[in-house]
Structure formats: structure tokens, C-alpha cells
Amino acid sequence: MGNVQSIEKAVQNLPPAELAEFRRWFAEFDAAAWDAQLEADIAAGKLESLAAEARAEHQAGKSRAI
Description:
Elements lengths: L2 H10 L3 H28 L4 H12 L7
């Protein structure tokens, strides 16, 4: 059995209170991983083309305040 399958089985066997605690922990873990990846992408300039496109559309009047 692989690691992921072992983890899945362990999660399935958690009592409700521990499952809730695991969900909270995993949501925080996942958000931190997402933030780290986004920061790395920004630092590497991977989002520059999207930002330039958004600025160009705004300057062309294709955006509106919400």
C-alpha cells in the first residue's frame, strides 16, 4: 500500500472530532502551500504577463469599479 493510500485509510478511520481537527490543520497547511507557490511565481515573474494584460485592458477602458 502506498503512502497516499495509507493516509486515506487513516483519515477514513478518524473519529469525528479528530477528523474536524485534521480538516482544520489541512486547510491551513494547504493555504500556506498555495501562498508559498504564489509568492514563488510572483518572484519569478510568472504573473507579469497577466498583470500587463490586465493593465492594458484597464487603460483601454475595459474594466469597471466594483
